[in-house]
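re the bet — no i am not wrong, look at it urself. input seq straight from the record:
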Amino acid sequence: MKQQYSNHTKYYAPHHFVFLPLMAVLMIVGGIKAYYATADRLTWLLFSIVCGCILYLAVMLRQHYALGNQDRIVRLEFRLRYFRLFGKASDSVESNLSFSQIAALRFADDDEFRELLYKALVEKWDAQQMKKTIKNWQADEMRV
């Protein structure tokens, strides 16, 4: 499938469609059992709380580490591409862009990169405006 704005998000099936839903179900079951239980109410409540904590940690840690690393790579890609296209360091330009604008530029081809960079710097376009105007979408199949 050709990547474009409408389908550029990515899911990791074992995490998003197996582990997270299973933990959510276990948390809900524990809550229901705690509500209706007479003898083991505290045990089921604790079970539900532990499942909720594991669910929260699983989501936050996976995303935190992966996205932090990916953000660094995106910035390096921007610097390299800027140098390749303009023949100079991108420090002054990069300091005037938000990370979301830098990330949006990676989906544009070289010609659109120049145009969108100008619009981001001069016209203060946000990342969503930039992504929506890309005509020749450059897929990123290797992101986390």
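see?? The chain has a mean pLDDT of 91. told u. also Residues 27 and 48 are 4 Å apart (CA to CA). so pay up
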